[in-house]
Amino acid sequence: MPTAPRFINNTTSYTGGHGNGINCQNADNAEIAGNDASHFNHHGLDMKSSASAWVHGNVAHDSDGNGIYQEFSANGLIEQNIVDNLAGTVAGTGSGIQIDIGTSGARIYNNSIYNVFTGIYLVTSATAENNIVMNSRNSALEENAGEFSTITTGVSSPRFAVNGTFYTFAQWLTLAEWGIWPSIRCG
Predict the structure, then answer these.
(1) pTM of the entire predicted model
(2) CB environment 90-120: b (16+ within 10 A), e (fewer)
């Protein structure tokens, strides 16, 4: 019987080339926990073509890349991570958490994201609840396809981007009342 990979309590730093701090591909039911990834060239924690990965209790920081990234994956759970100090100057770089093409069923809960370009960047739909996003230079949440279920932000005046249009928090709440996002909960 195959065993799911576990990446537990590792420290990675200054990964060169297309360097990810931790790279998890074609690895269903993987657990990525308690790791510290810094100064990576691409993504701190990278999951591709993996189902049901559980990413929790990690720290990704001090880089130009994305902190936590999923692509072509399903039903991942990303919770209780800290992501901070990611440079980035355009959407898709410097994101605290990015859910990219081909991903479905992603759940993003109880993460703390600070000093990034975009807090949570969704290329495909995902559920995001009880996350704190502070000091994002672009937006707390940027959503470019599908829809998200919920987001919570700890920012006093966050901006949200939906399909290329930016909204203040008040505007975003008004759109929710109009039924654009049917199951929104803000806190």
Answers:
(1) 0.82
(2) ebbbbbbbbbbeebebbebbebbbbbbbbbb
